[in-house]
Amino acid sequence: MKFVAYTLALLAVLLILSPIFVFIVDEREMAVVLRFGAPKRSYTEPGLYFKMPFVDSVQRIAKYQQFWGDQKDDLLPDLPTKDDKKVELIPWAIWRVNDPVVFVQRLRTMDVAEQRVEQIVRSSIRDIITQYDLEEIVRSTNRVLSSGSEGLADDVALPDEVAAQLIETTKQTKPKGVQFGRAEILERIKVEAHKRLASSGSDSDSVGRGIELIDVGISQIGFVDSVRRKTFDRWIAERQAISAKNVNEGERLKAAIINETKADVARIEGEGQQKASEIKGKTDADVIKRFAEAIEKTGDFYTFARTLEAYEKSISTDTQLILSTDSPFFELFKMVKPEVK
User: Fold this and answer.
1) Of residues 158 and 74, which shows the higher confidence score?
2) Coil, strand or helix: which one is 30?
3) Are 57 and 34 in contact (CB under 8 A)?
């Protein structure tokens, strides 16, 4: 029993004192043993390892890949391209520690390593981007892009507020074509960043910094505010020009339709007037014909009746007539016998 008790006590003491000379490395990390602050050896595989008590210390380093960037705070502003276009972009990078001992010697902590990755990636992107045109940076193919200003006629009447100079510039601007493309440019940035990361700054053949870049990219690219405003103004001017062209075309079609309608109305009215005149002429001719036939059939009676109508209209109770003896009126009066009362 005493032996068991002593054994258990010894195990308890060893368990309490184990962190002094034993440490565990799990699968998500690496460890570097420091002796009086200087890296002595490293462990990259999970397991149980020993160290010298009170002499050695252990620095643990993340084994998995690290991600930096893709945030607004990481924006690279005012980058000039080869064709004098000002752009801004947001970079990103994936990196990891590949040599724990060199990492501790050169960089010490993960925060310092991330700052170094940021500096190298940003400087590499800045140096490479300035060597290419904007079209190379944003495209990887020579596919023809349609422009809103295509098809604008030279005689389009633009509104006063349209920037005609911007329209003319847009019409004359032609793409140069993609020779390298975005993918190859990103690959060059990655190679340049690898080269700078492997260099200590004074000797390109040095041991590096104990970290490596897995990948580098650009998550967002755009014009700076001033160029963006000019671009939007150009697009607005193009749309206004197209709108003006469509309005003018509509007004032309409207005038043509109105003129055609007026011509049809005038033609219809003329045809109606002609038919009305023809019908009236036929009616008048028929009346005259019937009148002549009636006169021909009635003969003297018609003449007599018309004469009486003339007397009735021209003679009243207060009428005084002076007639000659050979007047037709006088002849008729002589034929009238006075009524005897």
Assistant:
1) 74
2) strand
3) yes
Fold (topology level) of 63-248: Tetrahydropterin Synthase; Chain A (3.30.479)
Q: Look at residues 171, 166, 174, 173 and name the one whose alpha carbon lies nearest to residue 236.
A: 166
At 189, the amino acid letter reads I
Closest CA to 228 of 83, 84, 126, 86: 86
Contact 154, 172 (CB under 8 A): no
- Kindly report, residue by residue over 230-262, the tens digit of the pLDDT: 778 888 888 888 999 999 999 999 999 999 999
Dist CA 323 CA 310 (whole Å): 16
CA angle, corner 181, sides to 175 and 183, nearest 5?
Answer: 155
Cα separation of 63 and 110, whole Å? 11
Amino acid 5 reads: A
> Is 340 exposed, middle or buried (CB count within 10 Å of its CB: 0-12, 13-18, 19+)?
exposed
User: Please, which pLDDT band fits residue 155 given cuts at 50, 70 and 90?
Assistant: very low
Q: CA 37 → CA 31, 33, 58, 98, 246, distances in Å?
A: 14, 9, 10, 20, 78
What is the DSSP annotation of 92-146? Answer: EEEEEES-HHHHHHHT-SHHHHHHHHHHHHHHHHHHHHTTS-HHHHH-SS-PPPP
3-state secondary structure of 68: strand
Q: Which helix (H) or strand (E) holds 251?
A: helix 225-298
Distance between CA atoms of residues 221 and 189, nearest Å: 15
Domain with CATH 3.30.479.30 in the chain: 63-248
Nearest partner of 240 among 154, 157, 298, judged by Cα: 157
- pLDDT tens digits for range 274-322: 999 999 999 988 888 887 877 777 766 777 777 777 777 777 777 777 7
Q: Is the pTM of this model over 0.70?
A: no
